[in-house]
Amino acid sequence: MTNPTHKKAPHPPVGTPRTPHKAAPRHVSDAAPEAIIEMRGIVKRFSNAAGEFTVLKGVDLMINRGEFVSIVGKSGSGKSTLLNMITGIDHPSEGQVIVNHNDIYTGVSESARSKWRGKNLGIVFQFFQLLPMLTLLENVMLPMDYVDMYDFDLRPVRALELLELVGLEKFANKLPVLVSTGQQQLAAIARAMACDPPLLIADEPTGNLDTRSADTIIRLFEHFVEQGKTVVMVTHDPSLTSRTHRNIILSDGELIDETISRSLPQLRHRHMLQFTKIAERKIYQPHEIILSQDQHVDNFFMIRKGEVEIVLKKARSKETILSSLGADQFFGDIELLRGGKSIASVRAGKQPVEVLALPRADFVRVLDESPITAEAIGKTVQMRLEEHRRANPRKSRNS
pTM (2 decimals)? Predict the structure, then answer.
Protein backbone atom coordinates (compact mmCIF):
# COMPACT_ATOMS: atom_id res chain seq x y z
CA MET A 1 0.00 0.00 0.00
CA THR A 2 1.40 3.38 -0.96
CA ASN A 3 1.91 6.10 1.57
CA PRO A 4 -0.55 8.92 0.73
CA THR A 5 1.70 11.52 2.38
CA HIS A 6 4.60 10.66 0.07
CA LYS A 7 4.45 12.49 -3.24
CA LYS A 8 6.87 12.29 -6.12
CA ALA A 9 8.44 15.53 -7.24
CA PRO A 10 6.75 16.71 -10.45
CA HIS A 11 8.74 16.57 -13.69
CA PRO A 12 9.66 20.00 -15.04
CA PRO A 13 7.62 21.11 -18.05
CA VAL A 14 9.04 20.27 -21.44
CA GLY A 15 11.50 22.94 -22.51
CA THR A 16 12.32 24.09 -18.97
CA PRO A 17 16.12 24.26 -18.60
CA ARG A 18 17.55 22.15 -15.83
CA THR A 19 19.94 23.66 -13.30
CA PRO A 20 23.36 23.02 -14.83
CA HIS A 21 25.70 20.66 -13.02
CA LYS A 22 29.15 21.96 -12.22
CA ALA A 23 31.34 20.65 -14.99
CA ALA A 24 34.97 20.40 -15.94
CA PRO A 25 37.08 23.53 -16.48
CA ARG A 26 35.97 25.31 -19.63
CA HIS A 27 38.12 26.65 -22.44
CA VAL A 28 38.67 30.44 -22.34
CA SER A 29 38.49 31.90 -25.83
CA ASP A 30 40.38 35.12 -25.05
CA ALA A 31 43.29 33.45 -23.24
CA ALA A 32 46.69 34.56 -24.51
CA PRO A 33 47.92 31.90 -26.99
CA GLU A 34 51.45 31.77 -25.56
CA ALA A 35 50.38 31.71 -21.89
CA ILE A 36 50.02 28.58 -19.80
CA ILE A 37 49.06 30.54 -16.66
CA GLU A 38 46.98 33.72 -16.52
CA MET A 39 45.87 35.26 -13.25
CA ARG A 40 43.45 38.15 -13.63
CA GLY A 41 42.82 40.36 -10.62
CA ILE A 42 43.26 37.58 -8.06
CA VAL A 43 42.21 38.49 -4.54
CA LYS A 44 42.27 36.02 -1.66
CA ARG A 45 40.77 36.82 1.73
CA PHE A 46 40.76 34.72 4.87
CA SER A 47 38.64 35.14 7.98
CA ASN A 48 39.39 34.05 11.51
CA ALA A 49 38.53 35.09 15.05
CA ALA A 50 40.67 38.22 14.64
CA GLY A 51 38.73 39.31 11.56
CA GLU A 52 39.26 39.29 7.82
CA PHE A 53 42.65 39.76 6.17
CA THR A 54 43.69 39.82 2.54
CA VAL A 55 46.61 37.65 1.43
CA LEU A 56 46.59 38.37 -2.32
CA LYS A 57 45.65 41.88 -3.42
CA GLY A 58 44.65 41.96 -7.07
CA VAL A 59 47.41 39.85 -8.63
CA ASP A 60 47.78 39.96 -12.42
CA LEU A 61 50.29 37.43 -13.71
CA MET A 62 51.10 35.72 -17.00
CA ILE A 63 53.54 32.85 -17.41
CA ASN A 64 54.30 31.59 -20.90
CA ARG A 65 54.81 28.04 -22.09
CA GLY A 66 58.35 26.73 -21.79
CA GLU A 67 59.42 29.16 -19.07
CA PHE A 68 61.31 28.23 -15.91
CA VAL A 69 59.99 30.66 -13.29
CA SER A 70 60.94 31.16 -9.65
CA ILE A 71 58.62 32.84 -7.14
CA VAL A 72 60.20 34.44 -4.09
CA GLY A 73 59.13 36.59 -1.18
CA LYS A 74 59.39 36.81 2.59
CA SER A 75 57.39 34.50 4.84
CA GLY A 76 53.75 35.60 4.76
CA SER A 77 54.06 37.39 1.42
CA GLY A 78 51.51 35.06 -0.21
CA LYS A 79 53.70 32.62 -2.17
CA SER A 80 51.99 29.41 -1.07
CA THR A 81 48.56 30.97 -1.48
CA LEU A 82 49.51 32.00 -5.02
CA LEU A 83 50.55 28.41 -5.81
CA ASN A 84 47.29 27.12 -4.35
CA MET A 85 45.40 29.39 -6.76
CA ILE A 86 47.33 27.97 -9.73
CA THR A 87 46.92 24.34 -8.70
CA GLY A 88 43.23 24.61 -7.84
CA ILE A 89 43.82 23.57 -4.24
CA ASP A 90 42.22 26.78 -2.94
CA HIS A 91 39.64 29.23 -4.31
CA PRO A 92 40.22 32.92 -5.07
CA SER A 93 37.85 35.37 -3.42
CA GLU A 94 37.85 37.43 -6.61
CA GLY A 95 39.36 37.14 -10.08
CA GLN A 96 39.94 34.48 -12.69
CA VAL A 97 42.62 31.78 -12.91
CA ILE A 98 43.28 30.35 -16.38
CA VAL A 99 45.63 27.37 -16.65
CA ASN A 100 46.41 25.82 -20.02
CA HIS A 101 43.60 27.98 -21.50
CA ASN A 102 41.01 26.64 -19.02
CA ASP A 103 39.11 28.56 -16.34
CA ILE A 104 39.71 26.22 -13.41
CA TYR A 105 37.21 27.72 -10.93
CA THR A 106 34.09 29.21 -12.52
CA GLY A 107 31.33 26.61 -12.31
CA VAL A 108 33.77 23.75 -11.70
CA SER A 109 33.18 21.03 -9.09
CA GLU A 110 35.95 19.88 -6.78
CA SER A 111 35.95 16.37 -8.26
CA ALA A 112 36.08 17.67 -11.84
CA ARG A 113 38.92 20.05 -10.96
CA SER A 114 40.79 17.23 -9.24
CA LYS A 115 40.54 15.02 -12.34
CA TRP A 116 41.61 17.92 -14.56
CA ARG A 117 44.55 18.68 -12.26
CA GLY A 118 45.71 15.07 -12.44
CA LYS A 119 46.10 15.30 -16.22
CA ASN A 120 47.36 18.86 -16.56
CA LEU A 121 49.55 19.60 -13.52
CA GLY A 122 52.45 17.97 -11.79
CA ILE A 123 52.95 19.09 -8.19
CA VAL A 124 56.14 18.66 -6.16
CA PHE A 125 55.92 19.37 -2.42
CA GLN A 126 58.68 20.29 0.01
CA PHE A 127 58.03 17.20 2.14
CA PHE A 128 57.62 14.77 -0.77
CA GLN A 129 54.16 13.41 0.25
CA LEU A 130 54.98 9.88 -0.90
CA LEU A 131 52.66 7.18 0.45
CA PRO A 132 54.83 5.22 2.90
CA MET A 133 53.15 1.84 2.36
CA LEU A 134 53.71 1.90 -1.43
CA THR A 135 56.98 1.26 -3.26
CA LEU A 136 58.54 4.03 -5.33
CA LEU A 137 57.19 2.34 -8.47
CA GLU A 138 53.68 2.17 -7.04
CA ASN A 139 53.85 5.81 -5.92
CA VAL A 140 54.73 6.89 -9.46
CA MET A 141 51.91 4.77 -10.91
CA LEU A 142 49.32 6.27 -8.57
CA PRO A 143 48.42 9.38 -10.65
CA MET A 144 47.93 7.21 -13.76
CA ASP A 145 45.55 4.99 -11.82
CA TYR A 146 43.65 7.97 -10.43
CA VAL A 147 42.91 9.63 -13.78
CA ASP A 148 42.81 6.30 -15.70
CA MET A 149 45.61 7.32 -18.04
CA TYR A 150 47.57 4.82 -20.16
CA ASP A 151 46.67 1.15 -20.54
CA PHE A 152 46.83 -0.82 -17.32
CA ASP A 153 49.77 -2.94 -18.46
CA LEU A 154 51.72 0.12 -19.64
CA ARG A 155 51.56 1.99 -16.33
CA PRO A 156 54.40 0.10 -14.60
CA VAL A 157 56.47 0.39 -17.76
CA ARG A 158 56.05 4.17 -17.84
CA ALA A 159 56.65 4.46 -14.09
CA LEU A 160 59.92 2.56 -14.43
CA GLU A 161 60.97 4.81 -17.34
CA LEU A 162 60.38 7.88 -15.16
CA LEU A 163 62.34 6.37 -12.27
CA GLU A 164 65.14 5.65 -14.71
CA LEU A 165 65.01 9.29 -15.84
CA VAL A 166 65.62 10.46 -12.27
CA GLY A 167 68.19 7.74 -11.60
CA LEU A 168 66.11 5.55 -9.27
CA GLU A 169 65.37 2.47 -11.39
CA LYS A 170 67.41 0.28 -8.98
CA PHE A 171 65.20 1.40 -6.09
CA ALA A 172 61.85 0.92 -7.83
CA ASN A 173 60.64 -1.78 -5.43
CA LYS A 174 61.84 -0.12 -2.23
CA LEU A 175 59.60 1.73 0.21
CA PRO A 176 60.26 5.50 0.62
CA VAL A 177 61.67 5.05 4.13
CA LEU A 178 64.50 2.91 2.72
CA VAL A 179 65.93 5.64 0.46
CA SER A 180 67.48 9.05 1.19
CA THR A 181 65.53 12.31 1.34
CA GLY A 182 67.07 13.40 -1.95
CA GLN A 183 65.96 10.16 -3.57
CA GLN A 184 62.47 10.58 -2.12
CA GLN A 185 62.23 14.00 -3.77
CA LEU A 186 63.40 12.55 -7.08
CA ALA A 187 60.68 9.91 -6.80
CA ALA A 188 58.15 12.66 -6.06
CA ILE A 189 59.23 14.46 -9.25
CA ALA A 190 58.85 11.25 -11.23
CA ARG A 191 55.35 10.90 -9.78
CA ALA A 192 54.51 14.52 -10.69
CA MET A 193 55.43 13.80 -14.33
CA ALA A 194 53.54 10.49 -14.47
CA CYS A 195 50.71 11.79 -16.68
CA ASP A 196 53.04 13.90 -18.83
CA PRO A 197 51.58 17.26 -17.71
CA PRO A 198 52.60 20.46 -19.54
CA LEU A 199 53.05 22.32 -16.23
CA LEU A 200 55.11 21.42 -13.15
CA ILE A 201 54.54 23.31 -9.89
CA ALA A 202 57.18 22.94 -7.16
CA ASP A 203 56.86 24.37 -3.64
CA GLU A 204 60.31 24.66 -2.02
CA PRO A 205 61.43 21.42 -3.73
CA THR A 206 65.01 21.69 -2.42
CA GLY A 207 64.23 23.10 1.02
CA ASN A 208 65.18 19.89 2.86
CA LEU A 209 68.03 18.78 0.60
CA ASP A 210 71.79 19.19 0.57
CA THR A 211 73.48 21.28 -2.14
CA ARG A 212 74.33 18.31 -4.35
CA SER A 213 70.79 16.92 -4.26
CA ALA A 214 69.35 20.39 -4.89
CA ASP A 215 71.54 20.78 -7.97
CA THR A 216 70.30 17.41 -9.27
CA ILE A 217 66.69 18.58 -8.85
CA ILE A 218 67.29 21.86 -10.70
CA ARG A 219 69.11 20.14 -13.55
CA LEU A 220 66.12 17.83 -13.85
CA PHE A 221 63.78 20.83 -14.03
CA GLU A 222 66.02 22.38 -16.69
CA HIS A 223 65.73 19.14 -18.67
CA PHE A 224 61.93 19.30 -18.51
CA VAL A 225 61.97 22.90 -19.73
CA GLU A 226 64.20 21.90 -22.64
CA GLN A 227 61.52 19.33 -23.51
CA GLY A 228 58.90 22.09 -23.69
CA LYS A 229 57.45 21.85 -20.18
CA THR A 230 56.80 24.86 -17.93
CA VAL A 231 58.21 24.85 -14.40
CA VAL A 232 57.06 27.24 -11.65
CA MET A 233 59.07 26.96 -8.43
CA VAL A 234 58.81 28.68 -5.06
CA THR A 235 62.23 29.00 -3.43
CA HIS A 236 64.23 31.07 -0.93
CA ASP A 237 67.58 30.10 -2.42
CA PRO A 238 69.24 32.90 -4.50
CA SER A 239 71.55 30.36 -6.15
CA LEU A 240 68.47 28.71 -7.65
CA THR A 241 66.69 31.87 -8.78
CA SER A 242 69.75 32.76 -10.86
CA ARG A 243 69.12 29.63 -12.94
CA THR A 244 65.51 30.41 -13.85
CA HIS A 245 64.23 32.49 -16.78
CA ARG A 246 62.18 34.81 -14.57
CA ASN A 247 62.15 35.73 -10.91
CA ILE A 248 58.72 36.84 -9.69
CA ILE A 249 58.73 38.63 -6.33
CA LEU A 250 55.73 38.87 -4.01
CA SER A 251 55.64 41.50 -1.30
CA ASP A 252 52.69 41.78 1.09
CA GLY A 253 50.37 40.02 -1.37
CA GLU A 254 51.30 42.15 -4.36
CA LEU A 255 53.58 41.52 -7.34
CA ILE A 256 56.69 43.64 -7.76
CA ASP A 257 57.25 44.92 -11.28
CA GLU A 258 59.87 42.67 -12.86
CA THR A 259 61.59 45.57 -14.62
CA ILE A 260 62.17 47.23 -11.25
CA SER A 261 63.43 44.04 -9.58
CA ARG A 262 65.86 43.34 -12.43
CA SER A 263 67.05 46.94 -12.80
CA LEU A 264 67.59 47.49 -9.07
CA PRO A 265 68.12 44.01 -7.58
CA GLN A 266 69.79 45.33 -4.41
CA LEU A 267 66.64 47.13 -3.24
CA ARG A 268 64.62 45.79 -0.34
CA HIS A 269 61.32 44.26 -1.43
CA ARG A 270 59.31 46.98 0.30
CA HIS A 271 61.15 49.64 -1.70
CA MET A 272 60.62 47.69 -4.92
CA LEU A 273 56.91 47.60 -4.13
CA GLN A 274 56.86 51.36 -3.47
CA PHE A 275 58.50 51.95 -6.86
CA THR A 276 56.03 49.55 -8.51
CA LYS A 277 53.15 51.66 -7.25
CA ILE A 278 54.52 55.09 -8.17
CA ALA A 279 56.44 54.43 -11.40
CA GLU A 280 54.86 55.98 -14.50
CA ARG A 281 54.81 53.95 -17.70
CA LYS A 282 55.82 55.92 -20.82
CA ILE A 283 56.19 54.90 -24.45
CA TYR A 284 58.43 56.68 -26.97
CA GLN A 285 58.32 56.19 -30.72
CA PRO A 286 61.41 55.24 -32.80
CA HIS A 287 64.16 57.92 -32.64
CA GLU A 288 62.06 60.14 -30.36
CA ILE A 289 64.11 62.24 -27.92
CA ILE A 290 63.56 61.21 -24.29
CA LEU A 291 66.16 63.52 -22.73
CA SER A 292 67.97 66.37 -24.44
CA GLN A 293 71.58 67.22 -23.73
CA ASP A 294 71.83 70.08 -21.19
CA GLN A 295 68.20 69.46 -20.14
CA HIS A 296 67.21 69.40 -16.46
CA VAL A 297 66.42 65.82 -15.43
CA ASP A 298 63.46 65.13 -13.14
CA ASN A 299 63.13 61.35 -13.44
CA PHE A 300 65.03 58.10 -13.12
CA PHE A 301 64.22 55.86 -16.10
CA MET A 302 64.18 52.04 -16.32
CA ILE A 303 63.78 50.38 -19.70
CA ARG A 304 61.01 47.81 -19.92
CA LYS A 305 61.07 47.11 -23.67
CA GLY A 306 63.21 48.24 -26.58
CA GLU A 307 66.52 50.11 -26.69
CA VAL A 308 67.70 53.68 -26.26
CA GLU A 309 70.79 55.42 -27.63
CA ILE A 310 72.98 57.69 -25.53
CA VAL A 311 74.04 60.46 -27.91
CA LEU A 312 76.71 63.12 -27.37
CA LYS A 313 76.55 66.25 -29.52
CA LYS A 314 79.87 68.10 -29.92
CA ALA A 315 80.43 71.60 -31.20
CA ARG A 316 81.26 71.73 -34.97
CA SER A 317 81.06 67.96 -35.31
CA LYS A 318 78.61 65.17 -35.83
CA GLU A 319 76.96 63.43 -32.94
CA THR A 320 78.59 60.47 -31.25
CA ILE A 321 76.62 57.49 -29.99
CA LEU A 322 78.23 56.65 -26.67
CA SER A 323 76.25 53.46 -26.02
CA SER A 324 72.95 51.64 -26.36
CA LEU A 325 70.90 50.49 -23.40
CA GLY A 326 68.30 47.71 -23.43
CA ALA A 327 65.65 46.12 -21.25
CA ASP A 328 66.25 46.28 -17.47
CA GLN A 329 68.94 48.97 -17.80
CA PHE A 330 68.48 52.53 -16.58
CA PHE A 331 69.41 56.13 -17.31
CA GLY A 332 69.05 59.54 -15.67
CA ASP A 333 71.20 58.28 -12.80
CA ILE A 334 74.15 60.62 -13.34
CA GLU A 335 72.11 63.80 -13.21
CA LEU A 336 69.96 62.71 -10.25
CA LEU A 337 72.96 61.70 -8.14
CA ARG A 338 75.34 64.53 -9.12
CA GLY A 339 72.89 67.30 -9.86
CA GLY A 340 73.04 69.49 -12.95
CA LYS A 341 71.77 68.96 -16.47
CA SER A 342 71.89 65.97 -18.78
CA ILE A 343 75.42 65.37 -20.08
CA ALA A 344 74.09 63.63 -23.21
CA SER A 345 70.87 63.11 -25.11
CA VAL A 346 68.82 59.92 -24.83
CA ARG A 347 66.59 58.85 -27.70
CA ALA A 348 64.59 55.79 -28.65
CA GLY A 349 66.22 53.30 -30.99
CA LYS A 350 64.75 51.81 -34.15
CA GLN A 351 61.73 50.37 -32.33
CA PRO A 352 59.28 51.88 -29.81
CA VAL A 353 60.64 52.04 -26.28
CA GLU A 354 58.68 51.48 -23.09
CA VAL A 355 60.13 52.87 -19.87
CA LEU A 356 59.20 53.29 -16.22
CA ALA A 357 59.85 56.78 -14.85
CA LEU A 358 60.38 57.50 -11.15
CA PRO A 359 60.20 61.06 -9.77
CA ARG A 360 63.51 62.50 -8.55
CA ALA A 361 62.35 62.96 -4.96
CA ASP A 362 61.20 59.35 -4.54
CA PHE A 363 64.32 57.97 -6.18
CA VAL A 364 66.68 60.01 -3.97
CA ARG A 365 64.68 59.21 -0.82
CA VAL A 366 64.86 55.45 -1.36
CA LEU A 367 68.56 55.56 -2.24
CA ASP A 368 69.19 57.32 1.07
CA GLU A 369 67.51 54.32 2.75
CA SER A 370 69.38 51.72 0.67
CA PRO A 371 73.16 52.33 0.77
CA ILE A 372 73.92 49.10 -1.13
CA THR A 373 71.75 50.26 -4.05
CA ALA A 374 73.33 53.72 -3.95
CA GLU A 375 76.77 52.10 -4.10
CA ALA A 376 75.83 49.90 -7.09
CA ILE A 377 74.36 52.83 -9.02
CA GLY A 378 77.35 54.96 -8.06
CA LYS A 379 79.65 52.47 -9.80
CA THR A 380 77.51 52.69 -12.94
CA VAL A 381 77.69 56.48 -12.77
CA GLN A 382 81.50 56.40 -12.61
CA MET A 383 81.70 54.04 -15.59
CA ARG A 384 79.41 56.22 -17.66
CA LEU A 385 81.28 59.39 -16.75
CA GLU A 386 84.50 57.76 -17.91
CA GLU A 387 82.83 56.87 -21.24
CA HIS A 388 81.78 60.50 -21.56
CA ARG A 389 85.32 61.75 -20.83
CA ARG A 390 86.84 59.47 -23.44
CA ALA A 391 84.32 60.63 -26.05
CA ASN A 392 84.75 64.32 -25.19
CA PRO A 393 88.29 64.80 -23.81
CA ARG A 394 88.48 68.55 -24.59
CA LYS A 395 85.45 69.36 -22.45
CA SER A 396 86.83 67.13 -19.67
CA ARG A 397 90.13 69.09 -19.63
CA ASN A 398 88.30 72.42 -19.53
CA SER A 399 85.90 71.39 -16.75
Answer: 0.85
